[in-house]
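Re: Re: token formats

Sure, here are both.
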Amino acid sequence: MIHVLFVCLGNICRSPMAEAVLRHKIAARQLDGEIAVDSAGTEDWHIGKPPHEGTSTILTSKGIKYEGITARQVGEKDFTAFDYIICMDDSNELNLRKLRGAEHAKIIKFMDLLPDEQVREVPDPYYTGNFDEVYRLIDLGTEVLLKQIIEEK
């Protein structure tokens, strides 16, 4: 089983969106028992809360389920439990690398999956309000990631 963890700041916008989108793609390809997905935040502000209304609205409009996804904070055990730890921006990468155990983890920046895009970080829609653009990037990036995982298996 391959384990993927998406990480953003508060775990209510970008990373749960990526979790839900990748789960949806995994189910569509009937790979449920082969790839597991989770998300977490580097901060503890929203622990136990569901995805942000903007995230849930766009996921619902795309027919993507997100039930059961609640915010949690990254922990030391995540660095050994996950094969891929994918952060949404430079700040979250820096926060991850400061945590104990990170020196042994494979941390990837999400936008490295999309080298042809102009932006190098997934913008935080909590501040920008642009959930459509974040969804576009996440849809493209999770497709690249899933193909990469399938090829590596």
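Second one below.
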Amino acid sequence: MMNQTGMQKNTLYVGGLAEEVNESILHAAFIPFGEIKDVKTPLDQATQKHRSFGFVTFLEREDASAAMDNMDGAELYGRVLTVNYALPEKIKGGEQGWAAQPIWADADTWFERQQMEEEMQRLQAEHKASIEAAEELHRKKLAEDREGEKEDDPMAKAEAEVLQQNRS
């Protein structure tokens, strides 16, 4: 019994297909991972060309899983593939099926984005801290230079001596 609301764990959605990829090429690309039950590349009724995605159904879930692990991000005819578990709605509703994606389907990219943003913030904070440290050093050096200038200033020296004498 297939859970209609869940993902079909033995059917893969394959996106990013080059125009020249047909069902037999798709079949050939995925057959190394196990026995394939079905390959579909839904055609655009107007152009009679596929809409750059297709579906590969394996007999075994493990084979589908291995194919997804190996083929997601792989290149076929110069295009990078996106391989995920298919959702039943995608097969029925074509591209509109995206709206039916469960929240977690985008979780990986969401986590990656979060990590990248955190990394950027961390780098910016480090950068800011190093600039502040450099400015602090610069201020100290300026202050020291000014102290040093007073040493050479005869008036300042005299004043300092007078102050010293008054204290003793």
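Helices lie at 23-30, 61-71, 88-93, 107-152, 154-167. The chain has two domains: 8-101, 113-167.
- S.
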